[in-house]
Structure formats: C-alpha cells, structure tokens
C-alpha cells in the first residue's frame, strides 16, 4: 500500500470513528441536545478535527441515516427474494413487516430516519452535496420498491387501476411515518387511556392502508 492509499485509509477510519462517536451521543442525548463539542469529546478529537471531516452536525446526521438506510435496504432485498410469485399486495405487506422488524431491531437508526422525515433538514446549510445525495439516493431506492409493487398491482388487477402510482406511494409512506411517530411518542398514553398496544395498532394500520388501495377493498 502506497503512502497516498495509506493516508486515505487512515482518513476513512478516522471519519468512521467520528460517526461512531456521534451515533452514541445522538442516540443517548438526542440530536437537538447534542453539540459538536459533545461529539468531539466522545470521539476524543478536537472540535477543529471534527470540522476537517464534517461541515456541520447536520452532515453527520445524514451520514448516520445513510448507515440506517443501507441496513434497511439489505433487509428489504433479502425479504423481496421470498415474495417472488406472490401478488403485489403481499409484497407491500411484506415491506411493512420488514419496516416493523427494522424499527424493532435497529430502533435508533429507525428513529433517526423518522425524525428526519418529520423535520426540515432537506435544505439545511452545512450538508455536503455528497452526503445529501447519497442519503437521498438510498431513500429513493426504498421508495422505488414501493412504486414498483404498486405498478405491478395495478397491472395484475389486485390494486385499484385509477390510483396514481407516485401519489399513492407518497401518501402511503407519509401515513406510515405518521403512524410510527404517533405510536412511538404516545405509546404510554395510548396504553393508559385506551388500553391498546402500539404493536397491535401498527399491524391494524397496515391492514387498513392495504384495504384502501386494494381493488374492491373499499366496498368490502
């Protein structure tokens, strides 16, 4: 390995060390309460060194989302292999189950993505184009799984033909984000006042969303 390659590898290791440290602080304190001083302290680097690698706290947040999206995509692609031969509605249901499994096994990554979906970081300053575009590309890959399933459903007749594919995908994703957010933040309230388990409500919500797009589902 030449000198240039070794330096580049060392730079990448240090960069990942900073992201690792930021994860620990973000996941324990929350993004808003975390400062770059906190990240530097956890990483055992000076704050000046942190800024050599990252323009802002927001950029690090995007890098953490990239890690989460990659895990979710790997889970999606693994499960998609087992849905060959099934209709589109079954595929969409399976995607919902994968998302639920991801939320349980990788809760902090999941909440990082959900918090972003509920925030306004898209056009925040201090986020490099590379970090932003990589994150967007991964998010759109997941979105494509959904639009592809919807398109297949319309073609095979299991999903209502009059639905606009992109509009429907955006609405479904927005509903799912809202459901997860509410059930996560109001879990105790829902249990204490309505005696309902969040996990059960989540599965019911998935069924309702599926019925809303199913061909003939509304009339049932």
Notes on the structure:
- The protein is mostly helical and 220 residues long.
- It folds into two domains: 1-54, Arc Repressor Mutant, subunit A, CATH 1.10.10; 56-213, Tetracycline Repressor, domain 2, CATH 1.10.357.
- The chain is built from ten helices and no strands.
- It has helices spanning 3-29, 36-43, 47-53, 57-80, 88-105, 107-117, 129-156, 165-185, 187-194, 198-213.
The main pleated sheet reads as:
none
Order of helices and strands: HHHHHHHHHH
Distance between the termini: 66 Å
Q: CATH superfamily membership of the largest domain, which one?
A: Tetracycline Repressor, domain 2
- CATH architecture label name of the largest domain: Orthogonal Bundle
Unreliable segments of 5+ consecutive residues: none
* Beta-strand residue percentage: under 5%
Q: What would the average pLDDT be, to the nearest integer? A: 88
Count of beta strands = 0
- Basic shape: globular
**What is the number of independent domains?**
2
Structural class assignment: mainly alpha
Tags for this model:
220 residues; Arc Repressor Mutant, subunit A; Tetracycline Repressor, domain 2; 2 domains; HTH-type_TetR-like_transc_reg; HTH_TetR
Topology overview:
Layout: H1 3-29, H2 36-43, H3 47-53, H4 57-80, H5 88-105, H6 107-117, H7 129-156, H8 165-185, H9 187-194, H10 198-213
